[in-house]
Amino acid sequence: MESGEAIDNRLFVLILQHPQEKKETLATASLTVAMLRRAKLVVGLSWPNLGRALGRPADSRRWAVLYLGSARPRAFGLQSDVVALDRRGQPAANQEEMLRDLDGAILLDGSWSEAKSLWWRNPWLLKLRRLVLDPQRPSHYNRLRREPRREALSTIEAAAQVLRQLEASPAAADALLAALDRLIAAQRRPAQDAVSA
Predict the structure, then answer these.
(1) Which of 40, 104, 126, 171 is deepest in the core (most CB within 10 A)?
(2) How far apart are CA 15 and CA 182, in angstroms?
(3) Phi-psi category of 77—alpha, beta or left, where left has phi over 0 and alpha has psi -120 to 50?
């Protein structure tokens, strides 16, 4: 991918960002949207429905949301970084069917408590298919900003996990993670320079 060229992702990524997260210096939502051809970032606390958040009509049956539930997919023998849940919050019996034919995925951007606030303020999210992350490796982002739970990844890492699972090519996921590594390196460089001075 050339510098400045957007990644041609198939799955649309809609990021709902809590207003407080905009003030975070290490926020990754803007970077994620800037890198993906099919992505949008909206800031706020609530929207009446998916179409209003997205800015165009959309079939909620063909969308998924990264869910904040407490399901532990590995306890059910599933070895996937992204797992679809049923309405009871348990891993769906037919993972392939639940992950097929999605038009888009919604990520909630903010601290853990801010993301929970977005979830509860937008009841229309309950109509979407639910996905949970169950990453096999710890967050890269933990080197800069502590995450409260293993599955609480940065927005850019969450987008990469979802795209890796649902896109035919890993190119989008690889590019997003490479951008995160560059961001981490840039943030650590001033601290290392201060120590050596």
Answers:
(1) 104
(2) 21
(3) left
Q: Calculate ∠ Cα 48-21-60, nearest 5°.
A: 30
DSSP code, position 46: -
CB 130 within 8 A of CB 106: no
Distance in angstroms (rounded) separating the CA atoms of residues 102 and 109: 20
Rounded CA gap, 45 and 115, in Å? Answer: 10
> Hey, what are 160's tokens?
């990469």
Determine if the pTM surpasses 0.90: no
Tell me the chain's radius of gyration from C-alpha atoms. Answer: 17
7 neighbors 169 (Cβ within 8 angstroms): no
